[in-house]
Amino acid sequence: xxxxxxxxxxxxxxxxxxxxxxxxxxxxxxxxxxxxxxxxxxxxxxxxxxxxxxxxxxxxxxxxxxxxxxxxxxxxxxxxxxxxxxxxxxxxxxxxxxxxxxxxxxxxxxxxxxxxxxxxxxxxxxxxxxxxxxxxxxxxxxxxxxxxxxxxxxxxxxxxxxxxxxxxxxxxxxxxxxxxxxxxxxxxxxxxxxxxxxxxxxxxxxxxxxxxxxxxxxxxxxxxxxxxxxxxxxxxxxxxxxxxxxxxxxxxxxxxxxxxxxx
Length: 263
Known about the structure:
39% of the residues lie in helices and 15% in strands. The chain has helices at 3-10, 47-50, 77-90, 104-115, 140-158, 164-170, 179-182, 187-199, 203-208, 227-231, 252-261, and strands at residues 19-22, 29-33, 55-59, 97-102, 120-126, 214-219, 239-244.
């Protein structure tokens, strides 16, 4: 029997994820979780701005970049969170930290903060794809666009003839990560994480139960973030929204916006 299957599938031992540590350990800690089918390299514009003041740790999510990519895993929220928690413990982080997530990582960061309230002292949610139940969206344009995005995701998952070339064409209207068309091992993790974490998300309930302060960032040109949905979160206690002119990726303007909030 394959050792990985025995150790992680049958015995359910969490995977340890690939992580990189930046700057000195005696500073306040920020842990970063990237988006779907991406990698820790997505933080390259932001880390240099924060490293002088913070001990930064970037983690590659389960199924992506340099972390394990089990093809048998379901990539549920629980699968991701158990691996994240196990990795943080193995890194020896014992004091409360700031948890930052981008896109899919923002959903995971919120769920983690809800499960481990004593660990997370502040949340940074970058470009969160907030898709509440359709019947709860009052603004018609936001309702239509949210419904369109969900249909696109389901189409990608279920259409039997979906190919990397079709994904490339869809990327002209939806900013899909290029890595899923270049690296076949990310194909299943992408689709399963899409279904179980983004489509079946719990971010609204998670945020309501979190007591730590939350800063949410998104660009006005982001095509997978529904601004109306995100702005509804500002009605909750200790939630602040920060917008800028930009898209989904963490470019220079995006990085400067986040760094300014952490001054």
